Amino acid sequence: MTKHNPNPSALAMVPFVSVDDMMNIVNTIGPAKMIAEIAEYVEADFKRWDLFDKTPRVASHSKEGVIELMPTSDGETYGFKYVNGHPANMARGFQTVTAFGLLARVDNGYPVLLSEMTILTALRTAATSAIVAKYLAPKNSKIMAMIGNGAQCEFQALAFKEVVGIDTVKLYDVDPQASAKAASNLKSTGLNVIVCDSSQDAVTGADIITTCTADKQCATILTDNMIGSGIHINAIGGDCPGKTELHKDILLRSDIFVEYPPQTRIEGEIQQLADDHAVTQMWQVMTGKAKGRTSENQITLFDSVGFATEDFSALRYIRDQLETTGHYVELDMLADPDDPRDLFGMVTRHKETKSN
Ligand code: NAD
Fold this sequence. Notes:
The protein is α/β, with parallel strands linked by helices. The chain has 2 domains: about 10-120 and about 310-355, 2-Layer Sandwich (ornithine cyclodeaminase, domain 1), CATH 3.30.1780; about 140-305, 3-Layer(aba) Sandwich (Rossmann fold), CATH 3.40.50. The protein has helices at about 10, 20-30, 30-45, 120-135, 155-165, 175-185, 200-205, 250-255, 260-265, 280-285, 310-325, 345-355; strands at about 15, 60, 65-75, 75-85, 100-105, 110-115, 145, 170, 190-195, 210, 220, 230-235, 245, 255-260, 280, 300-305, 330. The strands form 3 sheets. Strands 9-8-7-10-12-16-14-15 form an 8-stranded parallel sheet. Strands 2-3-4-5-6-1-17 form a 7-stranded mixed sheet. A two-stranded parallel ribbon has the order 11-13. A hairpin with a 4-residue loop joins strand 2 (about 60) and strand 3 (about 65-75). It is globular.
């Protein structure tokens, strides 16, 4: 039987980027440069929004957290991410968020990349926050308050330095050890790092506020009196039903920007508002169909929950780095008999080969 693929065994091998490979890729390219490059991929994919299959992520909730699948396709390539969110994990010595993801060819369904995505999620979340802030934050923003100094924190700080141009980050976390860890990690990045005793102290004088806390409840990390006019809020920690970070009054004073409304209305800060509360989609801003920041006094809020296209963009970026960095192994993950109908024969012949 004729096969269309001249080299079937090569097609059946799937490049796999392990945690070790991902760390090598990040250190080869440099974390700041890599975040800026992923931001370009995220922006490019937002600009071809209509091409993508879009669905709110498929979530399985438990009292400890959530496990989610995030699928999408641009018609040529299909991708998904598996990701968890378990706020109590940190206290048990586990990561709050872990992930892995896959890209596949749409024309034959064969996977073309399997990758760790715990590190990649931090990179893509930071890249997305920063590219969105480029459209929404006040011009010449220099100071960012960073509330919540856990796993995502340093990636966010670096992204805003590289893509937006901030020079100072003011850290606050209820756990002083988290802020000390972040301050130490950010020491040699060129950022001026200030550790603060309260969130009020952190937001004073800031052009941008990033909230990045983890708590499976409606928390109030920022209250209305802390928010002056003209500020940009990058709210990334409220990303699950019943898990928000901002007081509702802040939302009512802000112009709210989102990734994909059907998902954000379930998971974002706007779950506190009426279902028809006006929001603007970032793809519209990026393609010039809607306006971003229009005045100096405007409070802009990016109600980030993380959307499947951003993971797709990040995986696309990693696939494009495989050849130049060489940091991957090939996985024998697809059963691909010479005769596609003879799966059983392939199994039994394998036994014979082994016993010879
Ligand atoms: P993490 O558990 O590593 O860190 C969270 C930090 O928040 C901890 O250091 C904790 O002490 C601190 N914190 C908790 N309550 C606080 C409070 N009231 N004030 C100040 N600090 C407080 O979590 P992480 O991996 O950094 O993720 C942070 C959040 O971002 C999580 O809720 C996660 O689900 C969310 N997240 C969102 C996206 C997105 O695309 N929007 C992507 C990744 C993670």
